[in-house]
């Protein structure tokens, strides 16, 4: 997380923006890459995997909370650059969905939950 925040701060300085630019996103990308690497090496303990799954589930609410603190009105009235950046991110994200969906081999579906797992939920 700290590395991602530093990368976001540095990117903000390089772009001339007085803000952290994508620090949480960079942190999540690094987390995904690191966990994948550890899984492939067989060095990723089950409790750690469960912790990463928890924080992966928390990512969207955290980003929504962070976005809600932004001054949207000022961004829109500040000029077309904010709108172009938002539309650019939207188009790039939409264009990358099929690309990301093709990564890896198709996997078997998860088995049904056991009675113990159902009770734990």
TrEMBL record:
Instruction: Give the record's keywords alphabetically.
Output: Membrane, Transmembrane, Transmembrane helix
Domain of life assignment: Bacteria
- Which parts of the chain span the membrane according to its record? 20-39, 51-69, 81-101
Q: What Pfam families does its record include?
A: MadL
One GO cellular component, as annotated:
membrane
Extract the NCBIfam families matched here.
Answer: malonate_madL
> Can you name this protein?
Malonate transporter
Which organism encodes this protein?
Answer: Mycolicibacterium obuense
């Amino acid at each position: 997380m700290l590395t991602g925040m530093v990368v976001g701060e540095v990117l903000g300085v390089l772009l001339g923006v007085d803000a952290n630019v994508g620090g949480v996103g960079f942190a999540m990308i690094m987390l995904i890459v690191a966990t994948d690497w550890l899984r492939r090496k067989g060095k990723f303990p089950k409790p750690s995997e469960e912790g990463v799954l928890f924080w992966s589930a928390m990512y969207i609410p955290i980003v929504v909370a962070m976005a809600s603190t932004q001054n949207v009105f000022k961004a829109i009235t500040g000029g077309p650059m904010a709108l172009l950046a938002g539309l650019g991110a939207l188009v790039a994200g939409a264009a990358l969905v099929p690309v990301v969906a093709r990564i890896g081999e198709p996997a078997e579906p998860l088995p049904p939950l056991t009675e113990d797992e159902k009770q734990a939920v």
